[in-house]
């Protein structure tokens, strides 16, 4: 649960109609793995609570688990995604490319991993700048035929490392859990002096209020995390564009990866004109609600921001 | 700032086709100074031809107008009918003002004769340093421009990167089609 946000992936879910949407296998797999992991931890903590452990020891154990998750995050992520660390001999071009960007921007060279899947995607993980890993899928290397586009995507991931987004998001994502417990224990503590459950008639009503408030707190902080995550994506885009000096390349890569490139028509205007295509006002694209929940901003927004950068540079 | 800018722009947004077309005059300069796209001296207007006396009359009116105004604007023109059955009025001239004035005058003539529904697009041609062609297409239905950069030598592929560059460069100056799914290309332009 906590670690889902650790995954800093390149935009994978776009607001295209379902038939156009890419297969999100990797993302689903990772989220599932983390959900199961989260569940195991939750069950473990519940068992401890059932065994009569106090609030403070449980909090300490939970804290240690979070710490361990963060500490092993790179290994967990690599293991779950099936990414293999590759040597220079295996992927010389990829190594060269990363070294070029890293040298230009005075960053330590990360480990490089490759995932063998057709789906174009990339992610960065790692707890410090030195021990970080940048993983790309073979699908990403295949679909971005322009090396400068691949470079932009790698620069995006390197910016995540430079900005320490894995750490930021881990810390931030612990907040809802902490808030949840604080609300629950706070209420119990305040009402019952930290003792066991009272038997007064009001306790049922109070229980409901406690749960509602806890859920509200959790939901709001969940949304805040999402907002922070989206903001960090924008800053990673910006950082990548500054590293390469070519915002348009990243914009183009994003379009290709998200499948938006196919949306730029190739059918002749004179052919569609007869079909009165222009009288059909395009539907309001995407919904605000799905935006609130997603960890990545919509591709169009990212492309738009990059193009604004491009315009200000020329 | 940006919010108010958007707000004001909405009110300011010119309504008629010729107003929108004339907003290109500054865009031409921006494209040249920022990304080195030069005016190729050619632009065109395309409309669906229909058979009938009135349409032919309008065609003659356009030709007459362009013949008369030859002295005012330094323009040459030719007309072509393509395989889709579209009539193209192609204008050539050195000066941007002349091209824009010519295109909007032709558009006005079509409108006056009641054929505005037949108007498809106005196309403005640019050349890069390497003598490649890039276009801005004005869609009469949507009252907005969008870029079109065909890839040389390959059939029906377009250079989206260059298109996005053009769009970013003149984004503030002319009304642009925001919805990229409506950036319909015009292949094999008779320009």
Question: What does the model show?
Answer:
The complex is a heterodimer of chains A (314) and B (191). By secondary structure, chain A is mainly alpha-helical. Chain A has one domain (2-313). In chain A, 62% of the residues lie in helices and 6% in strands. Chain A has a 5-stranded mixed beta sheet, sandwiched between helices. In chain A, helix 6 packs across helix 8, helix 7 runs antiparallel to helix 8 and helix 8 (203-244) runs parallel beside helix 12. Chain A is globular and about 70 Å long. Mean pLDDT of chain A is 75; it is low at 1-23, 193-198 and 276-287. By secondary structure, chain B is α+β, with helices and mostly antiparallel strands. Chain B has helices spanning 2-12, 17-22, 24-35, 53-68, 96-112, 160-170; strands spanning 38-48, 76-81, 86-92, 119-127, 133-139, 144-148. Chain B has a 6-stranded antiparallel beta sheet. In chain B, a hairpin with a 4-residue loop joins strand 2 (76-81) and strand 3. In chain B, helix 3 (24-35) crosses helix 6 (160-170) and helix 4 packs antiparallel against helix 5. Chain B is globular, with a radius of gyration of 17 Å. The A-B interface holds A 248-249, 251-252, 255, 260-261, 263-273, 277-279, 282, 285, 303, 307-308, 310-311, 314 and B 34-35, 46, 48, 82, 84, 86, 120-121, 137, 139, 141-142, 156-158, 160-161, 163-165, 167-169, 171, 179-187.
Could you name the key traits of this structure?
heterodimer, A: 314 residues, mainly alpha, 12 helices, B: 191 residues, six-stranded antiparallel sheet, 6 helices, 24% strand, globular
Order the strands across the largest sheet of chain A as they lie in space. Answer: 1-4-5-3-2
What is the number of beta strands of chain B?
A: 6
Strand order of the largest sheet of chain B: 2-3-1-4-5-6
Q: Rounded to an integer, what's the Rg of chain B over CA atoms?
A: 17 Å
Specify the structural class of chain B: alpha+beta
